[in-house]
Write a structure and sequence with these properties.
The complex is a heterodimer of chains A (about 950) and B (about 120). With about 950 residues, chain A is mostly helical. Chain A is built from 38 helices and 3 strands. Chain A has a two-stranded antiparallel ribbon with strand order 1-2. In chain A, a hairpin with a 4-residue loop joins strand 1 and strand 2. The longest helix of chain A is centred in the N-terminal third of the chain and has 32 residues. Chain A is elongated. Chain B is mainly alpha-helical and about 120 residues long. Chain B has a domain of about 80 residues: Helix Hairpins. Chain B is about 60% helix and about 0% strand. Chain B has 3 helices and 1 strand, in the order αααβ. The longest helix of chain B is centred in the C-terminal third of the chain and has 32 residues. The radius of gyration of chain B is 19 Å and the shape is elongated. The chains are: A mainly alpha (about 950), B mainly alpha (about 120). Chains A and B meet through helix 25, helix 26, helix 27, helix 28 and strand 3 of A and helix 1, helix 2, helix 3 and strand 1 of B. Strand 3 of chain A pairs antiparallel with strand 1 of chain B, so a sheet runs across the interface.
Chain lengths: ~950, ~120
């Protein structure tokens, strides 16, 4: 049976597909499908509920991301059962109602799909056993409620209201995330079964206070507690079925659900009492006070919802077993009567075309049955005897009277608040009943009201019937449900309670009577209140205020971005590099003075400088500094860059890295070719010269970076270190089958990394190809005057015989790479450079006709070969890219093992050749064919002429 | 020797950074290449410089250089080329589309670092 538990949550999500399928069958089919989903959910719940009602907890646990503590685990206990019942039950009635309420021109499918997704999110929240999973569904409800509130997205108000709800509840969701992470950290698990048992541990932790505040932020934003209440009245811009669902049984109840859910784990402290009771009391009073003042009856209901949520919060804050029972009871009662009241409001809105209570009057004459339903539900809201709201209100009064947290005159505080709230709620309920259904004749209505369709009344009738049945025979009607739910909230057996209408003549009853009488009197003198309110109060919950704050925050963010991001590459890079330099400097200065960290030189002795190295260093310095200073003389700069590259490759030899030296040498040649090819198309002189400030800042940064890099290198070089390479050296031959450890690392130990790297290389080549496809540029540097000048015969004569030699060299380096310096990278570079030189020496037409190699095909073949080699080992049941040597160590198979990683190396070879060929030949192709070589004879670099003048045909003027 | 290597790295890095901050593509290409050299040497220096033999696991060999930084640097060199090639292509694309080799858009608000 427990296996069906996830289905309880997934059912609405599965139904989404069903709805899309039956979409073409028309409105009715969609509504039936959605309603059937809800009813099916109820049936499933009924099947699962017997053990839960007997006091068991159903838990289904399925690991998902155990490292993060996130598991797919669901839990059905009394509290979950209660909420599931409300979500499915009221959901079914809402769908029936919406099918008749929603205008024919609206897409009902779209609305119902969102509603089902929302219901699924709510079910996930109430049935999740893992708190992270619960948070996931919590966000689903925030997002889908955003869509629901924006159902009438064409209207500006709806959009603002939806955005406001999302900002508030989404922000609360972030706080909740932080709170849950803290809670999981404290409790050592995210599973509710664990957390609920560790209440004492959690309450004693020093992180308890911040965790509680964060959790409560999440709950209070969702449940619209002051000061986060303002989104709820604005959310009334949604169609009435949405309001009826979100603000009675679901969305706003998620917050109080959270309070109930975590009650055994986090309640029971002074802080909890102060925060929860205080917030609840303020919300209760403010909501009730403002409700009376709203002329829009949906606004009245919205503020009354806020007030009742405050009441429930207050009950959980009181922190006695009976108050928790009363809180749960009021959750049920409020959901039932508020849903029916919203439905009545929707009917009136639809029939009258307005929601202004100053114009809607005397509807009892026009729609007597609906009026009767509305009056009964409003009576429950006010706490009239024999209706369900009376019972939980009575329990609330009883708890305030007997609360142990106060002494002396303090004992009067809570009963006074309770009575005052009672008076206010009677007053606004009276206004709703009197203003809407009686009070003379309607004023200037857009439509003549009439009774609603018969079927539309059905959901209201069901709900109002529940209101009365619970009010008359509470123990029989909901005693069982309340007992199970309260037991789950309290984490044990609930206190012995018996729901009854008559408790004898006692203080709570006196308070009820005072509330009824006082409320009617207050309503009777309402005109004075209205005048006072309009003169004194400021409207902090107006959408305008929120929009102003919202736009202000956006503008602030824009200004901050504009200050940081000046849309200059140098500025961005400068910030980044400057931060890096400062981070290094900070680490340096903040190191403790006594440790070895402060001395630049470490304990290792310095090795002597030999003259060759010193000379090479001088050449390197000249090359680098020269290239920098002469970067405007570009040919010279390229040559100097080449010089420094060559010295670097010599340095690699000196540092016992022959593989690197070979690679560096080949890459240096390729880079020089690349730059030379590109040089022709870039203007000699440019528009931008750096200003003095920028030059100074740049110089400071460069010096700082240089000094920092030098200091860091020196500090590192003079300190001892430990390496993991011992393993690689020891196992290169036995496991990898080669003696060149660098190559074995590349193709075997870290073969997967190499596969990624050649993929990056291939992507770069494809990027170059894509960027330059179709680009045609005219060269700035004049071409040679004749074909002979362009392709000197000497070069041509030299290159053609060189090709086979170079290819032979490449093959040689490739073959020996596993054991001696060489390998796929070097071999590929050499082969490619030799091929590209053919292009340079003989011209493109000449070489294209002969080389006949497709770069893309080479890339693809190389990647395929490399991947297949890896996959082949999987076919033998070994991990990806596991070399043959790691599992066959018999001597006769030595050759096979060698072949396995060599095939991989061949893949590398192909990718490297493909990349270079593609990049360099693509550069050769972009010359505009119609450039007349003799058009600009002997053109000299001309500083007066900005580069934009010679823009290619396609280009737009740069400074246009 | 250690000081010499560290100085070389510092010079390469400093020159690279200076060129990177230029406002034209060609200088940035040069700067990136120099900075690449500096970083490659720095990674290699992570294996220290006291080795007596290249990392070839031949019988009887002792004092081998640390192969791991070398493997890292080897791919870094090749990918560095790919990066340079991509930047060259970007620069040329910029020439083709905007007709200029400036790295910043001409319509950017006038910054302090530029003078006509």
């Amino acid at each position: 049976m427990t296996l069906l538990l996830p289905l309880l949550v997934l059912l609405p999500f599965l139904a989404l597909l069903l709805l899309l399928l039956v979409d073409r069958l028309g409105r009715q089919a969609v509504a039936v499908a959605a309603g059937a989903t809800m009813v099916a959910g109820l049936g499933l719940l009924a099947a699962l509920s017997p053990p839960v009602l007997a006091g068991d907890v159903l838990v289904l646990w399925q690991p998902w991301l155990p490292d993060w503590g996130l598991d797919l685990s669901f839990r059905l206990d009394g509290l979950g059962l209660l909420f599931t019942l409300l979500i499915y039950g009221i959901g079914a009635l809402i769908i029936l109602y919406a099918a008749y309420y929603m205008p024919a021109e609206d897409r009902l499918t779209r609305f119902l799909v969102t509603l089902l997704a929302f219901a699924g999110g709510m079910l996930g929240v109430v049935l999740a056993e893992n708190l992270l999973l619960m948070l996931l569904f919590w966000e689903v409800t925030s997002l889908s409620s955003f869509l629901l509130i924006a159902t009438k997205w064409q209207s500006h108000d709806s959009r603002i209201a939806a955005r406001m709800a999302l900002a508030v509840t989404g922000g609360g969701g972030l706080a909740l995330l932080a709170g849950i992470l803290l809670l999981g950290h404290i409790a050592g698990s995210f599973e509710l079964s664990v957390i609920l048992d560790r209440g004492d541990l959690i309450r004693q932790n020093r992180l308890y206070a911040p965790m509680l505040v964060l959790l409560l932020l999440g709950a209070f934003t969702k449940s619209a507690q002051v000061p986060f209440h303002f989104w709820l009245p604005n959310a009334m811009a949604a169609p009435t079925p949405v309001s009826a669902y979100l603000h009675s049984a679901t969305m706003v109840k998620a917050g109080v659900f959270l309070l109930a859910r975590l009650y055994p784990a986090v309640a029971g402290t002074e802080l909890w009492f102060l925060l929860v009771t205080g917030t609840g009391a303020v919300t209760l009073l403010l909501g009730a006070y403002l409700a009376l003042l709203k002329h829009d009856f949906k606004g009245l209901l919205a503020y009354s919802t806020i007030s009742h949520l405050g009441l429930i919060t207050l009950l959980f804050g009181l922190d006695t077993p009976m108050s928790a029972v009363a809180g749960v009871f009021h959750i049920i009662n409020h959901a039932v009567f508020k849903a029916s009241l919203f439905m009545v409001a929707g009917v009136i809105d639809k029939q009258c075309g307005t929601r202004d209570m100053r114009r809607i009057n005397g509807l009892a004459k026009y729609m007597p049955v609906t009026a009767a339903l509305g009056i009964v539900a409003a009576g429950a809201m006010a706490g009239v005897p024999f209706l369900n709201g009376f019972l939980s209100k009575e329990m609330f009064f009883a708890e305030t009277v007997a609360h142990p947290g106060f002494t002396g005159y303090g004992t009067l505080v809570l009963p006074a608040i309770a009575t005052l709230a009672g008076i206010l709620s009677v007053a606004y309920s009276a206004r709703f009943v009197h203003d809407v259904f009686f009070n003379g004749e309607p004023v200037d209505l857009p439509r003549t009201p009439g009774p609603p369709p018969r079927v539309m009344r059905l959901p209201m009738e069901v709900l109002v019937a529940i209101v009365v049945i619970v009010g008359v025979a509470p123990q029989l009607a909901v005693g069982w449900l309340l007992e199970a739910a309260a037991g789950a909230v309290l984490g044990g057996a609930p206190p012995d309670f018996k729901l009854a209408v008559w408790h004898g003549f006692n203080l709570p009853l006196v308070m009820s009577i005072i509330a009824l009488g006082g409320g009617l009197f207050y309503y009777w003198s309402r005109d004075r209140v209205f005048t006072l309110h309009e003169r004194l109060a400021l409207d902090i919950s107006s959408p305008v205020a929120f929009e102003r704050a919202y736009n202000g925050a956006t503008a602030l963010a824009r200004a901050a971005m504009a200050a940081l991001d000046r849309r200059r590459l140098a500025h961005q890079l400068g910030l980044f590099l400057g931060l890096a330099v400062m981070a290094g400097a900070f680490a340096w200065w903040s190191a403790p003075a006594t440790s070895a960290g402060t001395a630049l030189a470490g304990p290792l002795p310095l090795s002597p400088v030999d003259p060759v190295s010193a000379f090479a260093f001088a050449v390197l310095a000249i090359g680098a500094v020269g290239a920098t200073l002469l970067s405007a003389q570009r040919l010279l700069a390229i040559l100097l860059l080449g010089v420094s590259g060559l010295v670097v490759s010599l340095a690699f030899i000196r540092l016992s890295a022959p593989d690197l030296a070979l690679t560096q040498l080949a890459v240096e040649v390729a880079t020089t070719l690349l730059l030379l090819l590109a040089l022709r198309f870039l203007p000699q002189t440019g528009p931008a010269r750096r200003g003095r400030t920028a030059r100074f800042a740049g110089a400071a940064l460069a010096v700082g970076a240089g000094l920092g890099a030098a200091a860091a290198s020196f500090a590192m070089l003079t300190r001892p270190f430990q390496t993991v390479s011992g393993y690689h050296i020891a196992n290169a031959k036995p496991l990898g089958g080669g003696t060149n450890v660098v190559n074995v690392i590349l193709v075997d130990f870290r073969g997967f990394d190499t596969l990624g790297e050649i993929a990056v290389l291939a992507m770069a080549a494809l990027g170059v190809h894509a960027l330059l496809e179709g680009v045609r540029l005219r060269a700035f540097v004049p071409s040679a005057r004749s074909e002979a000048d362009r392709h000197p015969i000497m070069l041509r004569m030299l290159m053609q015989p060189l090709l086979p030699l170079a290819l032979a060299m490449a093959v040689y380096l490739f073959l020996r790479g596993h054991n001696l310096p060489g390998g796929g990278f070097v071999a590929g570079l050499i082969a490619a450079v030799a091929l590209v030189l053919q292009y340079m020496a003989g011209g493109f037409a000449f070489a294209d006709a002969r080389v006949r190699l497709d770069g893309v095909a080479l890339l693809g073949a190389g990647l395929l070969v490399a991947t297949l080699t890896g996959a082949a080992s999987m076919a033998f049941g070994f991990p990806f890219l596991k070399s043959a040597f790691t599992y066959i160590d018999a001597a006769p198979l030595d050759a096979i093992g060698l072949a396995s990683s060599m095939v991989f190396d061949a893949g590398i070879f192909l990718v490297v050749v493909g990349t270079l060929l593609m990049v360099l030949t693509q550069l050769g192709r972009i010359a505009a064919p119609d450039a007349p070589p003799a058009a600009e004879p002997g053109r000299q670099p001309d500083p007066r002429e900005p580069g934009a003048h010679e823009a290619p045909p396609r280009a737009a003027p740069a400074e246009g | 020797m250690e000081l010499l290597l560290a100085l070389a790295i510092g010079i390469l890095a400093g020159c690279g950074v200076w060129l990177l901050l230029a406002s034209r593509t060609f200088a940035i290409l040069l700067g990136l290449a120099l900075l690449g050299h500096a970083v490659n040497l720095l990674i290699l220096a992570g294996g220290r410089i006291g080795a007596k033999a290249p990392p070839l696991a031949l019988p009887g060999a002792a004092g081998l250089a640390d192969p791991l930084p070398q493997a890292l640097v080897l791919t870094a060199i090749v990918i560095g080329f790919g990066m340079s090639a991509f930047l060259v292509a970007l620069a040329l694309k910029g020439m083709g589309e905007g007709g200029s080799d400036a790295v910043d858009l001409p319509d950017a608000p006038p910054g302090r670092e530029e003078e006509p």
